[in-house]
């Protein structure tokens, strides 16, 4: 068991993809599941909630500040929304509020230039 875990950790730490997206090397545990991935951020939680449950949100100043902090943390320059995303209209509305401006449509997707 220890050797298998050590092998997985060695592979994950050597993986440039895992490092590029900030993935954890150990799984995150919750009461009902085990998951690998990047540590959760406030914007991730907000957008995931919209994808799962839909509904329009009134974005607060605190959420906008967290969004800006998350963009800096992720080194993000552009946010892209696919027309095939679940609850597309609700996500668009939330992202318009978070960015403070409407998206540009480019080749079938919506883009917010947040790198300025």
Short structural summary:
The chain is of the alpha+beta class. The protein has helices spanning 2-14, 16-20, 42-53, 61-74, 88-99, and strands at 28-29, 34-35, 78-81, 104-106, 109-113. The model is unreliable at 4-26 (pLDDT under 50).
Question: Can you lay out the helices and strands and say which pair or pack?
Answer:
Layout: H1 2-14, H2 16-20, E1 28-29, E2 34-35, H3 42-53, H4 61-74, E3 78-81, H5 88-99, E4 104-106, E5 109-113
Antiparallel strand pairs: 1-2, 3-5, 4-5
What does this structure look like?
The chain has 116 residues and is of the alpha+beta class. The protein folds into two domains: 34 residues, no CATH class; 72 residues, no CATH class. The protein is 48% helix and 14% strand. The chain is built from five helices and five strands. A hairpin with a 4-residue loop joins β1 and β2. It is globular. The chain starts with a helix and ends with a strand. The relative contact order is 0.12.
By DSSP (H or I, 4+ residues per run), the number of helices equals 5
Helix content: 40-55%
List the strand order in the largest sheet.
Answer: 3-5-4
Query: How much of the sequence is in beta strands?
Result: 5-15%
Q: How would a textbook summarize the main sheet?
A: 3 strands, antiparallel
Number of strands: 5
Task: Give me some keywords for this one.
116 residues, alpha+beta, 2 domains, three-stranded antiparallel β-sheet, two-stranded antiparallel sheet, 5 helices, 5 strands, 14% strand, globular
